[in-house]
């Protein structure tokens, strides 16, 4: 799913930045920087944050065995 139409970023792109070699992205601004682009209109920021939170919650459940 495309989450940033200005930069054509998908939810898969966002998740990939959380496991990048240079260290995980910690906020939507870092996601854009990791992907070599910059925030334009800002409408995607809330969605990117939600995707990041969901990915972190999923990782926590895998580590705790829940």
TrEMBL record:
InterPro entries: BFD-associated_ferredoxin, BFD-like_2Fe2S-bd_dom, BFD-like_2Fe2S-bd_dom_sf. Keywords: 2Fe-2S, Electron transport, Iron, Iron-sulfur, Metal-binding, Transport. It comes from the Bacteria. Signal peptide: none annotated. Belongs to the Bfd family. GO terms for molecular function: 2 iron, 2 sulfur cluster binding; metal ion binding. This is Bacterioferritin-associated ferredoxin. Coiled coil: none annotated. It holds the Pfam family Fer2_BFD.
């Amino acid at each position: 799913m495309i989450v940033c139409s200005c930069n054509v970023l998908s939810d898969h792109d966002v998740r990939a930045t959380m496991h990048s070699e240079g260290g995980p992205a910690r906020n939507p601004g870092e996601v854009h920087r990791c992907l070599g682009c910059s925030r334009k209109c800002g409408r995607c920021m809330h969605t990117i944050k939600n995707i990041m939170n969901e990915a972190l919650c999923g990782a926590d459940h895998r580590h705790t065995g829940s």
